[in-house]
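Problem 12. The chain below contains 727 residues. Write out its predicted structure in token notation.
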Amino acid sequence: MPPANEPARIHELRRLLEQANRAYYVDAAPFMPDTEFDRLLAELAELEARHPELADPTSPTQRVGGEPIKGFKQIRHAVAMLSIDNTYDESGVRDWAARVVRTLSGESRGPGGLFGAPAVTFVCDPKIDGVAISLRYEKGLLVHAVTRGDGTTGDDVTHAARVIQPIPLRLDGTTTPPPEVLEVRGEIYMTSAVFARINKDLEDAGDDTLANPRNATAGTLKNQDPKLIASRRLSFCAHGRGEVSGAPADFAPTHTVFLERLRALGLPTSRHAVRCDSVDAVIDAINRFDTIRRTLDHATDGMVVRVDEHALQQRMGTTSKSPRWIVAYKYPPDRTTTRLLDVLHQVGKTGKITPRAVMAPVHLAGTTVQHATLHNYGQIRQKDIRIGDSVYIEKAGDIIPYVVGIVPEQRPRGARVIAPPPECPVCNGPLEIEYAAGPESPESETSRRCVNPECPAQVREKLVWFAGRKQMDIDGLGEKTIDLILTQTDIPLRTFADIFHLHGHRDTLISLDRMGEKKVDNLLAGIEAAKSRGMARLLAGMGIRHVGDSTARLLARLFPSLDALLQAPLPMLMPRALNKEDARALGLPEEPGQRPETGLGKETAPAVFTYLHSPAAARTFKALREAGVEFASKDYAPRESRPVAGDNPFAGKTIVLTGTLDAFDRTQLSERLEALGAKVSGSVSKKTSLVIAGREAGSKLDKANELGIEVWDEARLLAALDADQPD
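Solution.
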């Protein structure tokens, strides 16, 4: 081609490829084979390389991905992405529709209303099981793609959106000029075919396969490499709106028209969305789609029903949790039956033994299921589940399979009672069994755990936990790497201290599958950095029963080092539970509310104290010290600087956080409250002093109200924290 004609060819190819993309993703009428599309794309890339002066960030060639980004920044939504209330049956849909009519009654809009209420139409739109996203277009160009996050602020994943083919980089204003600002809400998802292809590739490479399409989509979006994201071939479907400004008054008076406008602009929407003139029509649409959804190439778990007219949506408004003008009908989970063949007894990192069902393979909710959790041995007894039974299985959240119960009339002769292991199935060590109603009620058993801290099954799980992000944060030492070392080398990796001696095995590590020099050097650097994480992370990482993140931080505030903790008498681990005489003998304030919180009480402190002073713990601490791990606390607060009751409204309080808080990260808020002398707990009980409830607060708020516990909203929390700041 003569050089003079190349710019024209570039423009022609861009136009042709954009038309092909739209025909494929929006119109469902492809006119070009994939091979031809790829050939033209390669031709365009070659021509653009010869003409850098014609560079265009919206060119189809820009979707192949650039260099990996270095991190995610947070972007605040111009219009909050609120959650949607759910309903699970026809009566729930009818009740919601009746509330809509009642809310809007009294507003005269002409004939057709019921008892003076306006005539309300609805739109039913399939609920795709993907990841919610907000796309912001300014003057027709994509400027941001942001995840839902906490509903107010999300992660900027524009780098990912730019390489997802169905998302236009420039809106098509040929028939419908786009608004100055248009925020499109939608769902990014992975088709079943793509999911199957990726899993086959991973399996062929010897890597772990992905759990389900939704998790695979979420993980792909959070990947920082656009080239990998592009290779995953994610899909997108638009279904809602955020900010819309600079548009004609008649741009989209209804949701039905809004979807039409989006399609005209080149954005894909569901072909199964339908407008309904009555609640009966809504129910019909829900039932019809239930038969269709199983034939689609992507997962759907419900039908979103909304008031069609935007003016009526605005009149109805929102609650603190969700809009009043929209509801999501959730289809009941898929259930099927299969035969229980065996039960495995798995030992976790804390020694807890979990029964796992082995079943005849069966297809359920898009995947083949052969294993499912049986939760605990108490539930097995309650449901009288036996090996050989026909069992009902469902998927919790359409993800995790579990056994619902048995089909009694199909029990075969010789069905075997499931016998809980009398000792650890891995190390043959003794077990500790807990019952909700005592040993005389075996069906009330809630847990069964191995108490041998050196149990091999626990060691592997504890190593994974120890290296985790919230514990010692050793980058590169995940499950796969630990398993490679355990199964493919003779490197000793049986204790926490062994991790810090991996530097002496660099050459062996480099020789492992999928490792290499750079990856190993990064791993060793992460191990070196972990030595100085501090006492709180070290304790949290050891998997000590009753010592989680919160309790580890509280202990690290009370004791300047692990050595000081080991020298402390048992009562110092539970100062709130002491009587006045014992507190005085230890030099603590007589009033419990003025004593520091440790997170341990009369029942849990002795168990922790016993472990800390056990021979096994002594060996662990000695080995860690010799490996160079620091025992000093980074959180220690001298007694004179610790908050006491009366210093601020949080000191001495046991606080539970629930719901979504717009102004806070949950972990950072917990740390701030604990620094003010509070204990942050994960569950509501009679001992709870205060519940802080954000948006979407659920059962914890209900329990707080039932027990008469004080509840604060986020505004009151902010006011109290601001008042506590020094002038």
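Discussion. The longest strand covers residues 335-347. Students who got a different answer should revisit the alignment rule from Section 12.3.
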